[in-house]
Amino acid sequence: MNIAKKIFLNKNMSQIMTMFMSLFFIFVVAACGNSSSNKKGNRVVAPVLPLSVAAGCQGCLMNQGQIGFIATTDSNNGSKSFYLGLDLYGDVARANFNDPKIPLIYSGIVQAKGVLKVQYAETYLCNIMPGDYIVSTVTAGTWQGGIMSGLRLQAHSLQTGQLLLLTFIQGVINNPTSLNGVMRGEVNRLIGSIRIDSLNGQVCLGSTALPIELY
């Protein structure tokens, strides 16, 4: 093999190795990025589509450009077997969404995405199977200066296959642990009542139809 041919082959091998190492680096970076959890406060938000609305969502904003972030909230029932973490969104045309106090000054429709975590089954919780449920909006609710009502949600678990329909009857946002009070950039509390309307299409009856108090 002559010298020119050896140089040519060595050059090609060098280019191939460089290309291989570049692709390997990109793969590693992407994998590391995907393994990171999207943490907000003390919770991990399940990956949800940006609009996070169920098919045929009633009264929802469907254009991403219309949607403004109101607040992040956490809620638990009394026994802490039922945890609901929501990111709340409203209509940017209705208020100044640059104001960090937007949760207290905004009035208009509200929709949400987030995660429902069920630690263990309870009769009054319609015997929902334990697991993580991705939450999206079925019917937009009303937000009035920190008070929310009528928000209808869907919660679906890839672990259990269960599908819940819930109605947030009323909720009030507050933040007793922050010196700044309720702020968009804080993990706030949403205190109120939520009702489980159905589980896998079956209506919850009797005591299981009673509202769940959240704190």
Q: What is the CA-atom radius of gyration, in angstroms?
A: 23 Å
Structural class: alpha+beta
Strand content: 35-45%
Give the CA-CA distance, first to last residue: 80 Å
What pattern of helices and strands is seen along the backbone? HEEEEEHEEEEEEEE
Uncertain parts: 3-13, 20-49
- Helix proportion: 10-25%
Number of domains: 2
Description:
With 215 residues, the protein is an alpha+beta fold. It folds into 2 domains: 1-36; 44-214, no CATH class. It has 2 helices and 13 strands. The chain has helices at 3-35, 102-105, and strands at 39-40, 43-44, 53-58, 67-76, 82-91, 107-118, 131-139, 141-144, 147-156, 163-174, 187-199, 202-203, 212-214. Strands 3, 4, 5, 6, 7, 8, 9, 10, 11, 12 and 13 form an 11-stranded mixed β-sheet that branches. Strand 8 and strand 9 (147-156) form a beta hairpin. The longest helix has 33 residues, at 3-35. The protein is globular, with a radius of gyration of 23 Å. Residues 3-13 and 20-49 have low confidence and may be disordered.
Keywords for this entry:
215 residues; alpha+beta; eleven-stranded mixed β-sheet; two-stranded antiparallel ribbon; 2 helices; 44% strand; disordered N terminus
